[in-house]
Specification:
By secondary structure, this protein is α/β, with parallel strands linked by helices. The chain has two domains: 9-62, no CATH class; 77-209, Ribonuclease H-like superfamily/Ribonuclease H (Nucleotidyltransferase, domain 5, 2-Layer Sandwich), CATH 3.30.420.10. The chain is built from twelve helices and five strands. A five-stranded mixed sheet has the order 3-2-1-4-5. Strand 1 (78-84) and strand 2 form a beta hairpin. Helix 5 crosses helix 9. The mean pLDDT is 92.
Amino acid sequence: MTTHKKKTIQQIKALLADVETLEALEQHPDRIDTRKGVQAAFHSRRKQLEKQAQLIEQYVAMSRYEDEILNAHPDALICGIDEVGRGPLAGPVVASAVILESNHQHIGINDSKQLNAAKRETLNQSLKDNVLAWAIGVATVEEIDTLNIYEATKLAMYRAIENLSVTPTHYLIDAMTLEKLAEPQQNIIKGDANSVSIAAASIIAKVYRDDLMADYAEQYPGYDFEHNAGYGTAKHLSGLAQQGVCPIHRLSFEPIKSQYRS
């Protein structure tokens, strides 16, 4: 009489890693194995697949603005635009312009502020490696103080567009209107959470600016720029109180304008 040796729990876990849908998981032949370790492995894989399904559903929902444009203009080159750094007391405002590749699937993309640093870094590299085009635009502290932050943000966005290697036919912009653009544009409130193109721009801009502020932290120590990215945290304000302003502080912003400007 031939007996079949039971699979080990590790073997079953390895098999479950290749299961890609919830339907396939429920039909898996090892599902009837009552060992606690096996049932725990199925439970864990089910949670992973459910999370993946939610991320895919979210990605589809965040593609609706792009899909509307592509349904009417199949050859459209849609550019998502977002900025990072309107609120800090120090550092430039940075904008990014991104044209996603066709058949893009950057699952897990979201407003950069909703992602942890490791996830942002992973998505940032994936986007840069795969999108049709991306570019950065920067408006300096001096331009922020001269123009005001709203106009400086527009300037950074225009510069990002000018730096693209591909000319867009349509624009999706996070909560801004760029009057100088001739092509169709759509202003989307909370665009970084509602459009994959704008979310992509948000991620690239944030990683770029965070890295820039970490470099500034070495040049201008004492303000904790590497952790606060120029925002008015307790350590940043403490540094201001002890050292005064440095060359990348925004002199037109409070409390610098009234308390620290010489």
